[in-house]
Amino acid sequence: MTRLEDEAQAVSSDNCLSSHAPCIPSVSPEIRRLVCEPCWRTVFSADSFHTAWVAQFVSTSPESAGFSYTTPAWEEMQHSIDLMCEWCDLVCEEIEFYYHHKTKTKEAPPADSTFQLRVRFRQESGNIADGSIITLQLVVENSWPPVYLIHTAADDQAARFIHHREVLLHVDSTLGYDLIKKCVGDCLRHERCPPPLRTLLPTRVIDCANPELPCLFVNQGIEDNYVALSYAWGEKQPHCTTTINLDSYIAGIPLQNIPKTIMDAIKVTQKLGLRFLWVDALCILQDSDDDKAQEIAQMRRIFRDAYVTIIAACAHKVSNGFLHRRSTWHPTASTLPFRCPDGGIGTMQLRGGQYAPKEPVNERAWCLEERVLSPRRVIYASHTLQYECQTTHINVNGAPNFIEPFDGIPRLPDRIFLPTPAIPNSDLPADEDVAKAWRDILNLYTQRTLTKPRDRLVALSGIVEQFHRFWSHTTYIAGLWEHQLPGCLLWYQSSGSQCCTRPDRYRAPSWSWASTDGEVTMTSCSNQGVLCTIIQCDVIVAREMNPYGEVTAGSLVLDTILQPAVWDPVEGELFDAAGVPTDPLEWPELTRSDSERGEIGYVVRDAIETVSERIGKVRLALVSNTGNALLGLVLIPVTSQTSSAEQNDCPSFRRVGWFTAPFCDKSAWLSSSYQHIKII
């Protein structure tokens, strides 16, 4: 029998909760004052509460389970709120929300109105240590019920039946460090999680054996466990390791040179019983481009092999630190009586299922790579301390509140963490779960910011290398995967009116999302319905040691159908442009009145630039036929073509947008001749 089934059996035989109960448990004045007399006689009476509690064990018609009653009049409940009735306060908030939605007004319910409520406890699945949580649902007039998460104090009578606690606020405590160790120990038993292994240390690490005098340790082939730190710089760090101070830092790093976030990480490393810590600012020579490139190329291994990664999620800048005591999260929980199945009376705290607060670290592009590459993450969030691995994402003390962040971080598929020989070597395009993980990560990554925009490809290179271990049969080309071409060319900017200007400095060919700033959506990498063929695709990487990083040039040759069109970038509309001169150099600029030949679709521009600010003629390269619309790339001619391109009669273009054409003459377009074009 499960724990909850045991409780259900105990409840069913409990005389104290039956209608013939001979015993009446004593109630402390503090608990009794939590609710008004009408609430105490209804919802919080022994029989009523029992009916609501056992609803969690009902498997048939669960929507009708629980305790149902009619509220007092609205005016009476408002008076009870003035007398500090926690239940009336909670109920009225939900009734008001229901009433506003029903009446489409912002007025309060009439003073004499009453409402039908149903109260029930439910079991909910979640990323909690024991696999599920108990929640309370409050159904107003058969509407969709809000869900409240429940916890109680460890020394409360209700703690025997409510196993979840308030989130841990004192993160820098013996309890906090013990809970981290327990989470890592539990992780060792997770089938989905790779075990931590003693592995080759990174090139340099901080030796934390003496936290009063930490020093740089230069590895000479030693294997050991180490901790990695992921954090937001947020400001300049004047005392980074350089070629000038390297030798002195090996002897010892002055404490006054170490920012608070890094000092806190040194403390956590030592408290966990570990000696070595990797931090980019101190373990990479910040004045050496060669050393930076070499260490960035090792980023996947550094975070993948870390015993744990500390994520200083709450710190806006490196001088903030992350071990401060957390404040109680608002809104505060509602404290209510809890009728224990054994007849005792304790208290429970109810909170709505709010998401965790957004964290500063989640705005930084580099930090996404560091998080998803790490098999075990200790997250110092704004409100508590959390642990995350391939299996679970929990508050370290098992509290149910604020677990999943609003912008949930996608996990890499489990198989990507397998040892290389165990990863399947397939000629198939990709398993869908891996392809979806790539799209999700790309979308989330492009929402984040970079201090140096030229790092658009570099800051993702560690994740790319990890994916390449699974997609070993293919080639990564400036942000796209060869086996997903040409379908993956159909990315588009998803930030709408917040579209960014075209970067001044070259970062990638125009057909790559990395050539733009802002959030990118890649809805599918499928090649179903494709209308074009890749003839050639080449890029030149800036550094051979990092084939997944920065590129200096690239080109793509397509065999496709090219159609002329008129684009109004202000409205995003696309119009037919039959009769456009074949020579791009002869395209005259159009006026708005010239585009009155019928709308055929719309365009999402890649960036704010001259061509995307006024109406004009463009070329459409067809990529895919969905059945409902033709999709493809919006191109403009590049006048300075290479001599080889001219000799091969292969005109050059630059991508400026993505289009869909559901209203075009599809049969006429698809019967047009194919030609080779070059996109740079």
Question: Which characteristics define this entry?
Answer:
23% strand, 3 domains, 8-stranded mixed β-sheet, alpha+beta
Q: Could you explain how this protein is built, in words?
A:
- The N terminus is likely disordered.
- Helix content is 22%, strand content 23%.
- Helix 5 packs across helix 6.
- The strands form six sheets. Strands 7-6-10-9-11-14-15-16 form an eight-stranded mixed sheet. Strands 21, 22, 23, 24, 25, 26, 27 and 28 form an eight-stranded mixed sheet that branches.
- The chain has three domains: 183 residues, no CATH class; 211 residues, no CATH class; 260 residues, no CATH class.
- By secondary structure, it is of the alpha+beta class.
- It is globular.
- The protein has 17 helices and 28 strands.
Integer average pLDDT: 88
Question: Strand arrangement, largest sheet?
Answer: 7-6-10-9-11-14-15-16
Oligomer: single chain
Largest sheet: 8 strands, mixed
* Count of beta strands: 28
How widely separated are the two ends? 65 Å
Q: What's the helix count?
A: 17
- Domain count: 3
The unreliable regions are: 1-22, 579-596, 642-647
Strand content: 15-25%
Sum up the overall morphology in one term.
Answer: globular
Q: Please compute the radius of gyration using only Cα atoms.
A: 31 Å
Helix content: 10-25%
Structural class determined from secondary elements: alpha+beta
